[in-house]
What we know:
Layout: H1 10-18, E1 24-25, H2 26-36, H3 45-57, E2 61-69, E3 72-79, H4 81-105, E4 108-109, E5 115-116
Amino acid sequence: MPVNDQALREPTLLILTAIADAPRHGYAIAQEVEKISEGRTKMRTGTLYGALERLLEQELIAVHEEEIVDGRRRRSYALAPRGREVLAAEAARITRTAQEATRRLGLGFGAAGGVVGA
């Protein structure tokens, strides 16, 4: 389960999801977070890099590559093995919760994946 046996906060979930399929640098992570959240979450630079440092300390992510571009350090980040485990557990938890909500609402999913009965 997640770091403290609690659900991940949405920004953490989005960051881990953003790098689950490929390493990315900070700006690309911010773009992916916005895309995954359908525009609901826009991460400011300071917030993003603070979160990345925290996730590095928790060993959920790792520095994949580091280079100097135009005199500035540029890092790309990848999901660490522990981060992959935490993200998988959180995805399973969210899925179970969504399935239960769907069941209790009496909603089903049609063949095309659309909600039936809404």
